[in-house]
Give the backbone structure.
Amino acid sequence: MWSISSCQDGSGDKKGALGSNIAEKVYVAPGEHDEFYAFVSGGFSGQLAVYGLPSGRLFRVIPVFSVDAEKAYGFNEETKPMLETSYGFVPWDDSHHPDLSQTNGEIDGRWCFINGNNTPRIARISLQTFETEEIIEIPNSAGNHSSSFVTENTEYVVAGTRFSVPAPQVDMPIAEYKGKFKGAMSFIKVNPEDGHMNLEFQIMMPGFNYDLAHPGRGKSHGWMFFSTYNTEEAHTLLEVNASQNDKDFIAAVNWKKAEEYMAAGKFKEMPADYRHNVYDESTHSATSNKMTTVKVLDPTELPGLVYFLPTPKSPHGCDVDPSGEFIIGSGKLSASLTAHSFPKMLAAIESESFDGEAYGIPILKYEDVVGGIVEQAGLGPLHTEFDGKGNAYTTFFISSEVVKWKLGTWEVVDRQPTYYSVGHLMIPGGNSRKPFGKYLLAMNKITKDRYLPTGPELTQSAQLFDISGDKMQLLLDFPTVGEPHYAAGLPASLITENSKKYYKLEENNHPYAIKSESEAKVVREGNVVHIYMTTIRSHFAPDNIEGVKVGDMVYFHVTNLEQDFDVPHGIGVIGANTSELLIMPGQTETFVWNPKKVGVWPFYCTDFCSALHQEMQGYVRVSPADSNIELTWSLDDE
Amino acid sequence: MKNLIKTTTFLLMLLAVSCSNPPASNEEVADLENTRPKGQASVVDDESAKNILQIAAGSPDHTTLVAAVQAAEIEHVLVNAGPLTVFAPTNAAFDLLPEGTVSDLLKPENKGTLATILTRHASPGSYDVPALQKLVKKGFKLYMATGDYLEITQEGEDVFVGGAKIIGTIQTSNGIINVVDKVILPE
């Protein structure tokens, strides 16, 4: 009887998931693995979230630009330098656009890069450890938005400034913006061996707003395309004053030409103040280096470096198709999409058919470079990716939909609503020569009634579409961390083989590491006390410490002696003005404790490590500042 | 529980037969019980330091013990986070038992008895020989995973647990193996 009534329900107007094969398409059985990883930006959380597709399961939130007490990121002594900037320790940022390293235009599974928007920075995350390994601050930049996009062989990560600013900074009237403010485009060189970044050069552009960027590929390799808005150079009420020009620009930057100019010494060395922070896996510690100069190229004096492609109405996305032929401009106040043709652009440059110039930078004629227009595709286009089968998919914020259209014929072939007001979308490999055109992830800005209510603040949502057929099919709707501005995805197989399981103890070069319990000790240097401690299932060594005094600065240097996958230990001590530590096998981490009260104070393991986890604890005796209790430590009274 | 699953599967199959649009394949659902037949012991990990089961399985002196662990279907216990100390009788130790005992215990109907006997060779915690000598000094008994306490004795440097002599010790990723010369049987 029950089954019969279910059938009638299933054949009603509103077919549930069981009435079709949708549930099956996103069902990843317990113990089975997802086909793709998705790295989804955490927006104003400052972090990077890692999901599996098609299940939408959240695996990890990688701390990048914001402190994370759960993982002691920015709280332990080892990672505090990662968040150092020229403004001091900055515990937060707004992370926007992850992009993956590429080799020959294909995703290679080595690193993920992401930009910090507020205090301009670029981070590099290892896809072996899923840890942030490096952060470089960007000088002369403000609102690091058209970032962090990677060239076809990961030669560079680029970072364009959204807000133009005086460069170098100077005390001047805001109203004198026009002509005086500058927009820096930064090219960060990536070492192919270890991924280490170096701010190679900046191109000092006119004071427009630089919104997004994408690399040329294939035939357009060697070029980078940046969308601009506010070519009006308004300094106030931009929602009105920056919407006056019928067309803004996509800036086409010939970075191979830039390299020639750099090699020919055509740069100016400019004083700058920025930090370069590197985490060393061998010492399990980060260092922060002060940088003092940057090399700058002036496009107004260097011919052939930059050209402007007129593009309607404040373009946001500027996306390059897998062949590298078309650059899709999404004028966010326009109803149509503009596809610039790279070959036409080259021909127009060749024939010097210019429509004037802006600050000495040639403006190409719109009709010379347009390769096609997708007419009346929707309202408020933002961003386009590709499936590698000749189709493009564009998000429309105002009309709240994803629109599928054909490259070359420019015809719209499908549209699906999103819930609600989609920003970016992501197809795994969609920003490369080789997209994996099976799924599309739409990242929405507005949630409203999509989930159970949680008071005024709601999670934002991502929606997964199956794009393997002619028509897109909505499969799944899942909540995200912070605001998902953009994402990058790749087949899981590119990562899983190389994923690190634990750190080898013999390779641990942390200055306070100890490799066995017998080396455990406590050392006093004036009022600084260093505790060299180990963890192994299920005890600390030492676990009884006496002779610590009120006012001491006590460093717990804790080495996890385990050499087994997925056996972290944690430690927390009562009253510490910092987070716990969460120490991976073979790793050493340090936190500082300033005991303020006389007494005997416990510490314990914060990660349920083993059957005797609840027994994993210890005590520190804290005596008055003037006491002469001898410093002693022990485990099982020895 | 298994019966419940079977019943549910049956109902779902009925549903599938009577509907034009079948729901997600029920065979897949039923297969879930088989994806991890040995629990955590199904995890493939060639990089981490070896755990108790992996070391025992690689020891030519412990083939009987490993066969018994498999027959009792308690592999997952030996790969657990632990920490665990296993008193591992050698093949020779099993040979000391009255003839027919081992083959009897390996029979499916004696699975429960076998599991109890083996579990009585494991203690939650990490006890190498110095740690056991310390227990002797403190006058402590050793708490076993079955809930009983075993006597620990010392003769010179030699340590005996439940009458079995420890003849070797191996550190593993999730605990300690003390090789013993006798099977520890209930008194």
The longest strand of chain A covers residues 268-280. Chain A touches chain B at residues 2-4, 6-7, 10-11, 18-21, 23-24, 27, 29-32, 501-502, 536-538, 562-565, 567, 585, 609-612, 636 (CB under 8 Å). The two ends of chain A are 71 Å apart (CA to CA). The longest helix of chain A spans residues 2-10.
